[in-house]
Amino acid sequence: MSKSRDGNFFEDFKLGQVMEHATPRTVTEGDVSLYTALYGSRFAVQSSDAFAKAIGYRRSPIDDVLVFHIVFGKTVPDVSLNAVANLGYAECRFLKPVYPGDTLSATSEVVGLRENSNRESGVVYVRSTGRDQEGAPVLEFVRWVMVRKRDKSAPAPEGYVPQLEKAVDAKALGAALPPLDTAAYSNALSGNSRRWDDYEVGEKIDHLDGMTIEEAEHQLAARLYQNNSRVHFNQHQQGQGRFGRRLVYGGHIISLARALSFNGLENAFHVAGINAGRHVSPTFAGDTVYAWSEVLEKVRLDRPDAGALRLRLVALKDKAAASFALKTGDQYDPAVLLDLDLWVLMPL
Amino acid sequence: MSKSRDGNFFEDFKLGQVMEHATPRTVTEGDVSLYTALYGSRFAVQSSDAFAKAIGYRRSPIDDVLVFHIVFGKTVPDVSLNAVANLGYAECRFLKPVYPGDTLSATSEVVGLRENSNRESGVVYVRSTGRDQEGAPVLEFVRWVMVRKRDKSAPAPEGYVPQLEKAVDAKALGAALPPLDTAAYSNALSGNSRRWDDYEVGEKIDHLDGMTIEEAEHQLAARLYQNNSRVHFNQHQQGQGRFGRRLVYGGHIISLARALSFNGLENAFHVAGINAGRHVSPTFAGDTVYAWSEVLEKVRLDRPDAGALRLRLVALKDKAAASFALKTGDQYDPAVLLDLDLWVLMPL
Amino acid sequence: MSKSRDGNFFEDFKLGQVMEHATPRTVTEGDVSLYTALYGSRFAVQSSDAFAKAIGYRRSPIDDVLVFHIVFGKTVPDVSLNAVANLGYAECRFLKPVYPGDTLSATSEVVGLRENSNRESGVVYVRSTGRDQEGAPVLEFVRWVMVRKRDKSAPAPEGYVPQLEKAVDAKALGAALPPLDTAAYSNALSGNSRRWDDYEVGEKIDHLDGMTIEEAEHQLAARLYQNNSRVHFNQHQQGQGRFGRRLVYGGHIISLARALSFNGLENAFHVAGINAGRHVSPTFAGDTVYAWSEVLEKVRLDRPDAGALRLRLVALKDKAAASFALKTGDQYDPAVLLDLDLWVLMPL
After folding, report:
1. Four-residue CA torsion sign, A66, A338, A143, A23
2. Within the 278-297 window of chain A, which residues sit less than 8 Å (CB to CB) from chain C?
């Protein structure tokens, strides 16, 4: 019998099953540098220890989305190695700041299963939790993926579709944000004086810049996250597949869009939660990614230092974001790569 | 009104204006590793903590040119986002060693302005200063760039062309070089026994090797420096422009040439100043960079451990440096990418 | 006379000559992150400080193969800059764990020389030793390379072909493996419960995944190791050569195959020695690398915590490893890139 594993298929999952994922990972300053080199992020809190300390952090925390990618990566070998598609995210909350030197590990619980009518695949819902070396949760999220069956005739596991919140309750946000000394927060160093009060529901922001993706870049990124999904790395195999090309890890687009969003959202340095997200189209090397945001909701939190903005963050391919392209009727514009609904926190 | 910023145009600058640039940056061992991976530099002082400590540093200092790039990167959003061309450098001095863990920030003062006769753009001169977390200056330099006007009919700011030194006075060099224990400086480990005494004015050195640039490499580099100049990253936009391609950040060529110059200048581990510099031609992915140096001047400093060499460092494209190509008459050889005039210090 | 060096030619070597190589190198967390981004390795011991500490390390050790590459890189300017081919490895042993912050340097002794009958080149055998900042050996290996002569008519150095061990004696293994607390070794976190007892001599493992190599990736890798062999970096020159392309550093293939081998060898976290190795064919950007392993030998060591497996690790190009392609008669399958014979240790 083969010693190597080719991952779980739909019929291998059981409702309520808990998986402890392999390969804990100490996050370091080296990861921070690579993340900067991959996306060019410029939020002052994550870039400068001095800035972070001045406002109340122990030092610069690890970028939230990098924490997400590392935890996500651990779930891949058990959850999505045989995925046809990554369908969505929900109920994602960041629960504790992560600092260089912390070690992350992950577990997932199967919270939903539904076989497709063609019996060739099914949808698996998992709630994944990332924990630090003390076992404290740093991140929690639900994602659902369409997973192939090994054997079409295999009996499907008991079906159940979980009820997921449309959006993370704003009251549940902020666990990963220490009390801020907002007076010590320098607008000159952060890049802008606009804080929470200066944004309005309904306003749209064109983040202006575009970034073209190279094969080496998205491969370096996915490997940094120890994400071993085959579709990202193997041109020999992908060349024979549906797209003829390697697929860029969807999270790479989230990070690109997030880094681009600095231009216009300079003080929205903390992603507190993700309400929903959809990778609308596949991305390939050579694509140029643009981004725009819309303020969906503003919530004053039960704390004096920061407020929450609910944003729609949209990534487009080869189309300037000044278009604010999204949908025509129910149909996404062909340029849309990502439609992400997230909570960011901003100092008051 | 849009929340995102598309940078300053020529008419936005005022003589004497001081800009405090955004996004302070803690430099780390991760940045050092990436810098090594991007250029392959082999100077022992910057590579080995043990070597650096033995001769008088606290530990390996950050490569001078990396410090330059990080400080430069901070000035881009305010100074050169709308630049047509980066015209020159002068009066650049390195003032204090930077170590992993130090946080760099930058300010710039507008020291010169001159509208072009076509009234479509003008030249902006800025003196930029990089400081560490204690506010101590680590680097100072003047650069001038041609910046577009937003509106051709806008009145030009008051004009003034600063008098810049032709070269940094050798007496002003060495602030970033601690007293060296030259006896502890191992020629075997540094790679060569030739020190300051062994070089002669007028001699030329072919650095032999060549490095071909990939898109992913120069993009990773510029993002590492948080340099957000659009021309480096956006093929969708650049494809429609004058060159049809992304432009490589000029500083990338400086770092490549500097790393190549190790072969023949093994003990010139410290760049103390830059007198002048010109990016003669644009560089693109696929170009192979070669480098050669000429010793322009030798100065004994008022210290017993090190002397200064003034070098011309030339980078060529797709042409071996054995040619020592430079100019025919007043005309640069078409292979010349960079013509840099710098001071390096070498142990006696 | 030129100040730059173009390396030693065959007639420059002398039997018994000892070379102290340049550029000592402090290995850092930054190098670890880059190594992860380049290969995606997932062995828990090297990934998690918490995991490593629990079983008896001070913290996560540097990946053995990364240590090999850094030491190897130092030998290149003196040993193989004028090499036509890297012919083989033998008697490689890892002698002490290397941790972030350690500084590596290298020496080599010429242990064999043999001129080729065409008098245009010869084979140089060197025994290279990597040492840490305290002078303690961390790695030792013999390699032999075919090196060009500068001058065909130059007299050949005295010839001698050393007797090399067919394999490293298993009794000599394990110096770099601290006593393990095997009870604290979590199978869930390591990714598999199979330990030394679960492998059998003769069994073959298809490591399933494939990785396509990009130019930027192998260049970043070789520069990270400060390996300045020209064939990896210079398309302008290589384009005129035999292959028309840049050659990928052979060690890059070793690291790719080793990282792929995690799938099926999850607990074989320590490479203790290399018995023999051959780069069967050159590798180029665009090639997709697959890997398979065969268990050649099992040895119980004189310690209660770990056993040794002798493996053949084979890397293939553009051919799935399910083929277990190797040789037809004496002839290697054209897909074979690497045939490596190594010792790995596994917890009992």
Report:
1. negative
2. none
